[in-house]
Structures are given as structure tokens and as C-alpha cells.
Amino acid sequence: MGAPIVVKLFGELDYPSAARTNGRLDPVTAGDRPHMILDLTRVDFLDCGGIGVLCRARRRTRAHGGRLSLVITDPRFLRILDAVGLRGCFDILGAPPDTARPADDGPCTPGCDGPVTAAAVPHS
User: Fold this and answer.
1) How many helices (H) and strands (E) does the chain have?
2) What 3-state class would DSSP assign to 50?
3) Cβ distance 9 to 21 under 8 Å?
4) pLDDT reported for residue 67
5) pLDDT value at position 10?
6) Are the C-beta atoms of 39 and 71 separated by less than 8 Å?
7) Which of 27, 59, 90, 106 shows the smallest number of beta carbons within 10 Å?
8) Per-residue pLDDT tens over the stretch 70-94
9) Cβ distance 49 to 81 under 8 Å?
10) From CA 75, how far away is CA 106, in angstroms rounded?
11) Which residues of 100-115 are buried (b: 16+ CB within 10 A; e: fewer)?
């Protein structure tokens, strides 16, 4: 496993943004032994749809022999993970490690209309 790829999510990670976010995370989690960090420091809102995104990314990275960590600084999100019994299922970091590299903002999968780093979108 090389340096982790950091995917910065922002806005609302919720049911309306889940399909778009999954579509952008799936290519990152599809490789052999993916090492991904989801940076949630710019996420304003997290609901059950967002929890589903996190669980899907975790399941896909593990299925490919990889590792997923979350950067969470908002205590509300930690309480949500506690409330649903998932806090122990994720490696929680206070910041991405210095060795991390940003996600490639190159070509997206079909249906993608922006960079991977903009996976979650503000709800309008």
C-alpha cells in the first residue's frame, strides 16, 4: 500500500448527494489495495444517506484489500457514528497524514460532472 489518496468532501453528505458521491468514490475504491482517506472537515451535514456512503466506501476498500480512514474534526459527526454504532468501524484521524496525496482531479467516470474532490455537494 502506497501513500493514501485523500478525497475531500464538502457541503452536505446526505441522501440527495449519495449517488453522486458513490459514483465518484467507486473508481478510487476499485483498485488493488486502495488506501483512501475521506476528509470530512468541510462537510456541513451528515445524514443516513451519508452514513451509507461511508459504509459503502469502507466495504469496497476492504473487499479490495485496502484501507479507509476518515478525517473528522466535528464532534457532531463523531456522536452520529457513536449513535449508530459505527465509530469503531472506521479509523478516525484529526488531519490527513503528511504522506497523503490528493485525489486525482482527472477524468471522472461516466455521469460525473466534476472532480473527485467535490464529491459531496451543497444541497439546494
Assistant:
1) 3, 5
2) helix
3) yes
4) 94
5) 94
6) yes
7) 106
8) 999 999 999 999 999 999 999 999 9
9) no
10) 33
11) beebeeeeeeeeeeeb
CA dihedral of residues 11, 58, 28, 31 (deg, nearest 10): 180
Predicted TM-score of the model (pTM): 0.79
pLDDT for res 116? 41
Q: 71 pairs with which residues across the strands?
A: 39, 93
Q: Which amino acid is at 66?
A: G
Q: Look up residue 120 and give its DSSP letter.
A: S
Q: What is the mean pLDDT of each run of 10 residues along the chain (124 residues)?
A: 86 96 94 93 96 97 95 96 95 84 48 40 39
Give the distance, in angstroms, between the CA of residue 29 and the centroid of all CA atoms in the same chain. 10
Instruction: State the virtual CA torsion across 46, 99, 61, 55 in degrees, nearest 10.
Output: -10
Phi first, then psi: give them for residue 42, nearest 5 degrees.
-105, 10
Instruction: Find out whether 33 and 1 touch, Cβ atoms under 8 Å.
Output: yes
